[in-house]
């Protein structure tokens, strides 16, 4: 479906803005409410916190249902969230030292980038189209009135572009007419011509009128006169040297010429041309006869300005907007939320626009990004909230908090928090702890975010959670890695003991790569140091570096960091070293009847003498009770 086809149905479908919102609201029954308990609640961007209080319930609850907005979880809007995130980050880099006059083109360009993302999403959608069209319609108008801040003269040109962009069904009709056998006799021919005139597209209207003139040679003079009027219709050119006053004089002369043609009954023999002539004069009754072609009151507004007040000032827009809405809408009809938002825009009431959009739209995306852009344009400086944060930061915090409830979009939210100077850090610290850590890959992503921002407390918390989970699943290597990253000495000690217990049971170490590359991390705890050095002893022994292995084992025995339950294992490891030379005291091998403690000291003496013999260093001095065994 093309974007033009979508927009053809926009007017009729705009009511789905609210219908879809009601459809997407998930209803959740709260049992405690129906039992008469007093409940407290706090709204969030994607959910609501409901809790029982100590107060007694007063009266009857009128609505025991909680509504939850689900837009944040819609895969259809994933592209919108992702693409707009890049634009947002780029906007934050616009230099503060750049003069405001030079920033304006950048801000307008950024606004158009936001709108292009919205329109790109429409191309891929079959639902939510009316909502996105309404969003783009509002954003485009805010861009014209607030960001670009077009002055009188240029203002009407921007409004015409705004209407043409959002009222493109005339192009569909034109294709249908031109593809017919006789375009001038097609039943939609005059609708196309009038629609072109209503949008100020006089060149297209002239081209269509040529076909009718060729079909009626006798009336060619009348068509030629209409072509002359259309060709002479003045449009303000902001790039020319012509002043607004000079343009106004030229326009009034043209307007008087059109009026003379009507008074002279120049088009009386052709009702269609006469009707077009009345439109060019801005006749209200004739314009209101085009309700079906105009479609909306704001199209009627722009057309009326085009033919009656082409030099309208921005400050006068609200008067004409209110007047046109009253004239166009049926007195019995109730204005839609979109009408109120557009009217507030024409009144230059930025905060009312933001407020109404916050109420009507399903999520915080629109108000957060628009407010951020307006704040950069210095249009919201005077509006601070009572609790300390300005409006921009408040809306960004709400939007980012909503993203954090999503399993993947939470990564986008981090950048939004980063650009909220007052409360962003606090919100990020609270939200990051709530991210479900389903996998180690996700945990590492969360950890990287915390480490980059020196969030040491959150780093320790995440590492402890992952270390505990890994230990519970008997994945000792992963558990030890996480505990080292958390710098948790107690937990590292516990895991190191589990490694030693497994070694005692199986005779081999698991996760050798990790243990072999502990480096300075082994100094985190005595038990971890022992684990790393004990593994190093095994590596030296396996490489037949017996002297180095003996010295390392000796240092492990004398450093008092080995668990007592591991002494016999050390004794067993030391025995092969004693057999490497002939000169060994027989008492070391006949000490089986001694306690493990005594035997360990015996072996220490022998190893000490062996080390002395090879290095010339003083031997280790054993306790007196052990020394007597060798006398």
Q: Nutshell version of this structure?
A:
One of its GO terms (molecular function) is structural constituent of nuclear pore. The chain has helices spanning 3-8, 10-13, 16-24, 31-34, 78-92, 100-123, 129-147, 154-166, 169-178, 189-198, 202-215, 220-232, 244-263, 271-280, 284-289, 291-294, 297-308, 317-328, 337-346, 350-360, 365-376, 391-403, 410-418, 424-432, 440-452, 456-472, 476-486, 489-506, 512-516, 526-542, 546-558, 567-578, 586-589, 596-615, 624-627; strands spanning 26-29, 39-43, 48-52, 65-68.
Features:
Nucleoporin_Nup85; nuclear pore complex; 631 residues; mRNA transport; structural constituent of nuclear pore; two-stranded antiparallel sheet; 35 helices; mainly alpha; membrane
Describe the fold and architecture:
Belongs to the nucleoporin Nup85 family. The protein is elongated. Residues about 1-25, about 60-70, about 580-595 and about 615-630 have low confidence and may be disordered. With about 625 residues, the protein is an all-alpha fold. The protein is about 65% helix and about 5% strand.
Write the SSE topology.
Elements: H1 3-8, H2 10-13, H3 16-24, E1 26-29, H4 31-34, E2 39-43, E3 48-52, E4 65-68, H5 78-92, H6 100-123, H7 129-147, H8 154-166, H9 169-178, H10 189-198, H11 202-215, H12 220-232, H13 244-263, H14 271-280, H15 284-289, H16 291-294, H17 297-308, H18 317-328, H19 337-346, H20 350-360, H21 365-376, H22 391-403, H23 410-418, H24 424-432, H25 440-452, H26 456-472, H27 476-486, H28 489-506, H29 512-516, H30 526-542, H31 546-558, H32 567-578, H33 586-589, H34 596-615, H35 624-627
Antiparallel strand pairs: 1-4, 2-3
Function: Functions as a component of the nuclear pore complex (NPC).
Family: Belongs to the nucleoporin Nup85 family.
Keywords: Membrane, mRNA transport, Nuclear pore complex, Nucleus, Protein transport, Translocation, Transport
